[in-house]
């Protein structure tokens, strides 16, 4: 150990032996390589599974590519054709927009109502919470979509129950254009478990003192819910809204199974993702399907951005 004589009078600075510096550098480089080694699986997934295919898809959206060897650059022709020469594209956009705007608010309303009920301290809360969460795990599965097709079929459970009540001339719900999309909306509302659990966690964070003070001031149950619960839950509502909205825009399995992959009847259940699938893997028009995928990404980004922009007017955080 040596002493740095250039230091101010009365102070000594310990200087490590010069032989320790290269050893420290080697140890630091080893730690750096170990960090990159642990990051390697994530980097492979990012560039090989996510970022790489996205860049390839963006390029293909400007081409005429059919998976069979034809590949030619066409510029913005795919995007122009979507809006000027493809009525089914516009129909798929309209069906998906209806599905999102109706099913998501209904799902969140139902989830919040049930979470409020469960928050009253019911006996066996863990059991009810698990049972109500189960549909969220199964709602987008093939098995549940097949079951839904049987329930709303011409001789399904719904018509059997309504027939027992004396109703006649009941439709085949999934084969009637006026009702087919409604059955898919009901299926999405039925998968309320995930937002319900999040709402329940948010309700547990509302201070009981606020309710006690409101009761002393004479507020009834509805007043406490409107003046305390809802403002305190707005961050949770916002989170659930964005999450469920993005999921609804990407809905695919329900429409594919219930309509047999056609989007029928009369394109009444032709979700955007189902039409994209048809163009890609039925018509082998990969360039057009890639353009549709990027348009969907832009639409989801715009709706999400609008949600974040408007949140400043109705979402209240602690301390505000």
TrEMBL record:
Record field: compositional bias (Low complexity): 1-18
Keywords: Cell membrane, Membrane, Transmembrane, Transmembrane helix, Transport
GO CC, one annotated term: plasma membrane
UniProt gene name: lacF_28
Keyword Hydrolase included in the entry's annotation: no
Sequence segments annotated as region (Disordered): 1-26
Domain of life: Bacteria
Designated name of the protein: Lactose transport system permease protein LacF
Annotated GO biological process: transmembrane transport
Pfam families: BPD_transp_1
Family under the similarity heading: Belongs to the binding-protein-dependent transport system permease family.
Domain ABC transmembrane type-1: 93-307
Organism this protein belongs to: Occultella aeris
Gene3D superfamilies: MetI-like
Subcellular location: Cell membrane
Major location (coarse): membrane
Membrane topology: Multi-pass membrane protein
Transmembrane intervals: 33-62, 89-118, 130-148, 179-201, 232-250, 289-315
InterPro entries (UniProt xref): ABC_transporter_permease, MetI-like, MetI-like_sf
């Amino acid at each position: 150990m040596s002493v740095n004589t250039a230091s101010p009078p009365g102070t000594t600075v310990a200087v490590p032996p010069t032989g320790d510096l290269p050893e420290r550098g080697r140890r630091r480089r080893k730690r750096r390589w170990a960090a990159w080694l642990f990051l390697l699986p994530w980097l492979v997934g990012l560039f090989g599974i996510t970022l790489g295919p996205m860049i390839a898809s963006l390029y293909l959206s400007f081409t005429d590519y059919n998976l069979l060897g034809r590949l030619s650059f066409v510029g913005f022709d795919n995007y122009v054709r979507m809006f000027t020469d493809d009525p089914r594209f516009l129909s798929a956009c309209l069906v998906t927009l209806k599905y999102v705007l109706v099913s998501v608010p209904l799902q969140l309303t139902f989830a919040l109502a049930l979470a409020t009920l469960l928050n009253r301290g019911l006996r066996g809360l863990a059991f009810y919470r698990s049972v109500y969460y189960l549909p969220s795990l199964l709602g987008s599965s093939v098995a549940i979509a097949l079951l839904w097709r049987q329930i709303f079929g011409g001789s399904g459970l719904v018509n059997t129950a309504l027939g027992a009540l004396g109703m006649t001339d009941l439709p085949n719900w999934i084969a009637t254009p006026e009702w087919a999309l409604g059955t898919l909306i009901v299926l999405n509302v039925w998968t309320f478990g995930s937002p319900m659990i999040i709402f329940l966690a948010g309700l547990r964070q509302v201070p009981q003192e606020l309710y006690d003070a409101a009761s002393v001031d004479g507020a009834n149950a509805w007043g406490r819910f409107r003046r305390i619960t809802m403002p305190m839950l707005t961050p949770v509502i916002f989170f659930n809204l964005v999450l469920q909205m993005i999921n609804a825009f990407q809905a695919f399995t329900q429409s594919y199974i219930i309509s047999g992959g056609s989007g029928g009847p009369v394109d009444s259940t032709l979700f955007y993702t189902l039409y994209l699938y048809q163009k890609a893997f039925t018509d082998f028009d990969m360039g057009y399907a890639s353009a549709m995928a990027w348009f969907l990404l832009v639409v989801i980004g715009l709706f999400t951005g609008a949600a974040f922009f408007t949140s400043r007017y109705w979402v209240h955080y602690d301390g505000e």
